[in-house]
Amino acid sequence: MTIGLIDVDSKIPNLALMKISSFYKLQGEKVEFVQPNTEYEKIFASAIFTRSKYKCEELIQKYGDKIEIGGTGWDINKVLPGKIEYSKPDYDLYSAEEIASRMRGIMTKERKLQKATEIVNAGMGFTSRGCIRECGFCFVPKKEGKFHNVAEIKDIINPRSNIIILHDNNITADPNCIDKLVEIKERGLIVDINQGCDIRLMNDDIAQAMGQVKHLRSLHYTWDLMAFEDKVIEGIKTLSKFIKPYRHMCFTLVGYNTTFEEDMYRFRKLRELKVDPFVMIYNQKKDIRLKHFARWVNSRIYKSCTWEEYEPWKKAQLEYLQVNMI
């Protein structure tokens, strides 16, 4: 029997598909990404983003009962069976070339391939699931429930590399956070805390432990709502004692329940703290101004011109004003 897999929209290797692949290969089955003109007994697809629902609907029309789709982008209630969930990921499933082809941004082909090779060789997984928060814009509490531990750091190491990609949704809420960071340091691992950390829970002990491990990239966190301002600022200042602000990145949610003035305020406040913001538009909201704002911020164009001087937005303002008047 041949099992087909479809990764609908992941930018990095899809952990669920890697576990499905590992499980069926151990059963003696052939597993591969779906190829044209090939027959499959069963197909598994995974979608991360809700914007991909239409792609999933097209897959159902094409494959019918043969396909099973999971992932937050399709069904937040669908989970892997325990026997698959606790399988070791198949680190041979993705090639570096496949991941490099999904990368965006201004990079040479060589740099993309280098980064992709790091990613496919890295260990990947969760040591905890769920979250202590219940933010209205987030799927995690509905999908994963209350915070609970599911594995240890040693369980997600890939022997090929000393890099681990940690998918935990809220590591600073973990009672074992410092112990895990100490283990990462003692094992000589380099960590990518992929889902960020809850900066409102930052204290000197956690920040010091964070500062003693090697990070694959910037340490990131979020400032989603204006009501969080005092705690966010306090957490950033605490973290900055141990990790310089230029190594931080703050994801900033816009288009949810903040005004543009509040979005600009958060951007300026973060820059005052020497932290790089990264704008995320809620549900890909179709707002011309927010799209230009996100590009101005995320591409670091603000370092060369002010928002008022940003030419693409200056040209788009007339259309924006007309749309809003209608």
UniProtKB/TrEMBL annotation:
Q: Which SUPFAM superfamilies match?
A: Radical SAM enzymes
**What GO terms are given for molecular function?**
catalytic activity; iron-sulfur cluster binding
InterPro entries under this entry? Answer: rSAM (IPR007197), rSAM_sf (IPR058240)
Query: What is the recorded name of this protein?
Result: Radical SAM domain-containing protein
- Species, as recorded: Clostridium cellulovorans (strain ATCC 35296 / DSM 3052 / OCM 3 / 743B)
